[in-house]
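USER:
I would value a second opinion on how I read folds in token form. Give me a protein, with the fold worked out from its sequence. Write it directly below this note and I will take it from there.

ASSISTANT:
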Amino acid sequence: MKDCLQFLIEPAKKLKFRLKETRKRVKHVKKEPFTESQLLIMELARELNRICQRSDILAHIWTGEDVWPPHACREFIVETANILEMQENTETPMQVYADLRPEKRDWKSQLLSTLEQGGEYDLGPYKRIILDWTRGQRNRHPHGIWPGEAVLMMLDDVELRWKRGHLSHLQSAVELLIGVVLGEHMDKELIPRLWLVQKQKTQKIDCTGYIPHIVWNWICNAAVEVTLDPETANPALVLSEDCKRMQCGLEQREVPHSLRRFDSWWCCLGSEGFLSGRWYWEVEVGDRDWRLGVAKESAPCKGYRPLNTQSGYLTLRLERGSELKALTTPPTLLPQSFIPRRVGVYLDYEEGQLSFYDTQKRAHIYTYNERFTEKLYPMFGTVERVREMVIRPADLRERCLSEGTWGTKVN
């Protein structure tokens, strides 16, 4: 009996010790003083809260409920200061803020060197720019700014996702309200465009997984009917009559000769190419090996040349059922947790953006950014013999009806 009691007592002692250690760590964290960068972010949130009416979401920041990591604060300060400085030198500030492209961000090198040094003092000039801007905006708008219903809907959505743990911090809300102050008005078209520019004009993996419902609706509004082009399909592929489905056959088919036909990789192009505009399509993929994306009109289709960015292909590929990668040069390996069953492909030709989404999780996977100059064709590839790759009809995309409501049709 004594041995049995000892068996229970020992784990309890260990658990009590771990709880004490945890309390000590929590107390230590609470007593840890804020860095100057964190204090500046809190002050910026307080000022934006005063300038933008009904922007109570930022109270989570300036009251200390949402404290960003110091490195995130420093990066945000440098980026924001440079945007504000550019805004002062243009007659159309909102346009510059929304259309800022990665290749124009020469401040990135400044940011990297500053972060490598790791000093708070080096951020002094950037902090002064932000503080001067906030003071100027408070004087310019003594009665505040009404952000508009569309912005408030976005803020509610962001706050909900943050409270549920889907966002690590509320940087998105701060960026959105800075955009409101710079532009003084944001319509339903500009909000999602600004979000995508800020959050996905980067090749950083998982730059933001969460997609606000307003942004998702805007993406889905670009839905287009996409069909497979039989003249480009590898002879090993079997296409359905409506050219919406394909899979590998047991043997190669007899097909007419075509200069645009894949003769090595088991791939096929879409029948229509794009030279402008926004386009979105969804594809149900297999669980073994597939590829999706776009191909430039000049991209070669003969032989086993790598189908990557160097040869004119911007694609996502699942290999051997476990390796998800963006076929950059060299390839960019993505986490296994990103592997989707249904992929949304979003192309914005003018913005030079090609993004991939897990439509069932409504999450961002990866984005290519490039200045497009030639026609782009949807591109598909599969080695599945049992499960078909299926292009979903454009009218199956349902809009999100409210915060937290996905509203996607399930077949």
